[in-house]
Design a protein that fits this description.
The chain is α+β, with helices and mostly antiparallel strands. The chain is built from 13 helices and 17 strands. The strands form four sheets. Strands 2-1-5-4-3 form a five-stranded antiparallel beta sheet. A five-stranded antiparallel beta sheet has the order 7-6-10-9-8, with helices on both faces. A hairpin with a 5-residue loop joins strand 9 (241-250) and strand 10 (256-265). Helix 6 (267-317) runs parallel beside helix 7 and helix 9 (440-456) runs parallel beside helix 10.
Length: 594
């Protein structure tokens, strides 16, 4: 992954993360605020319902106060105190309830005996527990149609010596809920039972909801006797839910007899959050597009100069010190380009100075070695000539003998000089490689076959071992030059094993390269010898010229390959040659040798 792609991914990921964080933050904050608003609305509505209960109770209490001062009720109070027959008042409560618009009305004496009942005349003479308070309370009232929940008050009748009470109220039904001023999105339900097994007939509702939807909230409110909050599904529509507050309602005995439920629709909140998310997704998409555009601009502004510097650095690493980078700005990237160009110029100057110093050192070493090589045969030549000069006064027979001996000596030394000059000439003008498709393993086997008799006839025991990789098949090489390289390395390996050992020739395919190794188990090399091994005219042999390995390195270099040596004293030596399969002769070398 290049720098441009990394910048694109980084900026895009940063935009997505920021937009996601903003969306989540706004959604969560919006949800929190709206939930608090809905809770406040539910609390306000609950307070309104309780206020309506209080207003209804006050109205009932006022009606009972008027009933208490009614002339017929006053007469019942006096007659009851005088012990009159009570059956004469059985139907009085019904007429009074109708007159004062009460759903329930009982006339009860101080002992709790019902003297008259409007809703259940048959309960005449039944005992009823009087409330300890005069305020409104809930009570299950027995009627001819069954038990119904009512909002009830009681009021004493201020007449007679033995007090009596009027107990009355109104039914809590759907008409009661319809009178409540409900805002949009608010619901009220009234469960008029204290049974844990939910009975749909006991539910009074402004909006019908399946009873099963309250299964998680009404039983908990009945069991705990405290307010319970929960969520209720209003319908099967996606957002049709409501946050519900369930409040247990107490009767005159402080026992839970009903549950009042107030709900606030979640639809506006959920739709608003959905709308916010849709807007956020749209903004995120636009942000990603802007991130792509920004990353392309950044790539053009910053990554392109960096890519140019990286490419130029690769060329420098490959050996091209003439590369220059055009500065495209005056900022730090421009300064970096200028510094790179200054570095390459300095490297080029240093390389020229180094090459010049190496040439001088090489020619000095070459001159020293050549002078040394030429000096060795000159001394015998000088002695031979001096002998000839001294022997010219000898008798002819003796002079002839001395002359023949000196002539042979002169010819031998002259041939030695010619050999030295010939080797120097060969090293100075190595032929250009003539590349052709060569079977590398076959070339290794041919070299091994050529030297096998020499190995077998050696006075010490040397084992020849071939390890040829079938994948190291063909390559573009000069077979003659490579054969010369292999022969030179094999002869060096044989010389390095004076006490015998193992000579191993191996090939190995590695990608687009072929690796050839020539290793021995001989005496090995010291670090100093290993470092100077390929220096021309350096040799550790008594009769060596020091040009063999220099020629080997030159041939491998002309094939665009490399040669390295691995060795340690007493652990043998291994020459590792790495050649490309499709080698090409170096043009500068070809021009130099032409």
């Amino acid at each position: 992954m290049n720098l441009r792609q990394k910048l694109l991914l980084t900026i895009s990921a940063l935009v997505v993360l920021i937009m996601t964080a903003v969306t989540l933050t706004v959604s969560m904050r919006t949800r929190t605020v709206l939930e608090q608003i809905e809770q406040d609305r539910a609390q306000a509505l609950m307070a309104e319902v309780h206020g309506e209960f209080q207003r209804q109770g006050n109205a009932i209490s006022a009606a009972l106060a008027r009933v208490a001062v009614n002339e017929r009720v006053q007469r019942i109070a006096f007659d009851s105190a005088q012990g009159e027959d009570q059956t004469q008042w059985v139907h009085e409560a019904a007429a009074l309830a109708q007159q004062y618009q009460l759903d329930f009305l009982d006339i009860v004496n101080s002992e709790g005996t019902i003297l008259s009942s409007a809703q259940a005349p048959a309960r005449f003479g039944y005992h009823e527990r009087l409330a300890a308070q005069n305020g409104p309370f809930l009570q299950n009232m027995e009627t001819s149609d069954g038990t119904v929940l009512g909002l009830v008050c009681q009021h004493p009748v201020p007449a007679g010596t033995a007090p009596i009470y009027v107990v009355g109220g109104r039914k809590l039904d759907s008409d009661f809920l319809r009178d409540l001023p409900l805002p949009d999105g608010m619901y009220v339900w009234f469960y008029t039972s204290n049974e844990f097994k939910l009975d749909p007939s006991k539910m009074i509702a402004t909006t019908p909801v399946p009873m099963a939807n309250f299964a998680d909230i009404i039983p908990k409110a009945l069991a705990s006797g405290n307010d319970i909050r929960g969520m209720v599904r209003i319908s099967n529509e996606r957002f049709d839910h409501a946050d519900v507050l369930a409040t247990p309602m107490k009767d005159q005995n402080n026992t839970t007899s009903a549950v009042l439920l107030v709900g606030s629709s979640r639809r506006p909140m959920l739709e608003l959050i959905q709308h916010i998310r849709a807007i956020a997704f749209g903004i995120t998409g636009v942000g990603i597009l802007l991130a792509i555009v920004a990353s392309l601009w950044v790539a053009g502004k910053f990554s392109r100069p960096i890519e140019q510097l990286a490419g130029a650095s690769r060329e420098v690493a490959a050996g091209n010190l003439n590369v220059q980078v055009e500065p495209q700005s005056r900022d730090e990237l421009g300064e970096l380009a200028e510094s790179f160009n200054r570095m390459t110029r300095e490297l080029l100057e240093q390389r020229e100075r180094l090459l010049q110093a190496e040439r001088v050192a090489a020619w000095r070493e070459l001159a020293r070695r050549l002078a040394h090589e030429l000096k060795n045969p000159l001394f015998p030549l000088q002695i031979t000539v001096e002998n000839l000069l001294r022997s010219r006064d000898l008798p002819p027979a003796e002079f002839e003998e001395v002359f023949q001996e000196c002539a042979h000596t002169l010819l031998d030394e002259i041939m030695h000089l010619k050999a030295i000059i010939s080797r120097f000439s060969d090293f100075s003008k190595m032929p250009q490689p003539q590349l052709q498709d060569v079977q590398v393993n076959s070339l290794i086997e041919k070299a091994a076959t050529l030297h096998r008799p020499q190995i077998q006839e050696a006075p010490r025991t040397i084992k020849l071992h071939l390890e040829l990789d079938p994948k190291a098949s063909s390559a573009m090489l000069d077979p003659d030059l490579l054969h010369r390289v292999l022969s030179n390395l094999i002869l060096n390996a044989l010389d390095a094993m004076p006490g015998g050992g193992t000579l191993t020739l191996a090939t190995h395919a590695e990608g687009d390269s072929i690796i050839i190794s020539v290793s021995d188990s001989g005496v090995g090399l010291t670090p100093e010898e290993r470092d100077r091994l390929f220096t021309p005219y350096y040799t550790s042999k008594q009769h060596g010229t020091g040009l063999g390995l220099a020629i080997v390195q030159s041939v491998i270099s002309d094939h665009n390959g490399t040669i390295s040596v691995q060795s340690a004293p007493g652990k043998g030596t291994a020459f590792i040659i790495r050649l490309p399969r499709n080698a090409q002769a170096k043009p500068e070398m070809a021009g130099a040798k032409a």
